[in-house]
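Thread: quick sanity check before group meeting

JM: Hey all, I'm pulling together slides for Thursday and realized we never actually wrote out the predicted structure for the chain we discussed last week. Dropping the sequence here so it's in one place. If anyone has concerns about the input, flag it before I start.
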Amino acid sequence: MTKWTGAAIVLLVVGCASISHRHQNTSPSLTTADVDGSGTVSRLEYKQYYLDRFSSAAPPAQGAVKVADLCPGAFPASLCEGADTSGDGKISVQEFLNRLDKEFAKTDKDGNRTLSPEELQ
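JM (edit): ok, ran it. Output follows.
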């Protein structure tokens, strides 16, 4: 194997790892979402984690994003299911926040109003 072939293989492996890592980041990781360092993710931290990503997808002038542009891809499909309550094919910030409340409650299996590392998996 030449050194260029070896380098190409390394780039291919690293590139595939980055694509996989990007998809993993569609669900909050404890280290990313746990802003206060408590070891769990509160509802506010959960919503802020996703709202930051939603804001990058929805320029402030638009205020809403086409469902197809968000899920699947930018977010897990579960976050878009039922989010478009107005039926216009877009998800507004308010619709997204409402959906996050429902998804948080569903993910909080023990009902303690925080998400543990196990619940985030």
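AS: nice. The CA atoms of residues 107 and 119 lie 6 Å apart. The beta strands are 41-42, 64-66, 90-92, 114-115.
JM: adding both to the slides.
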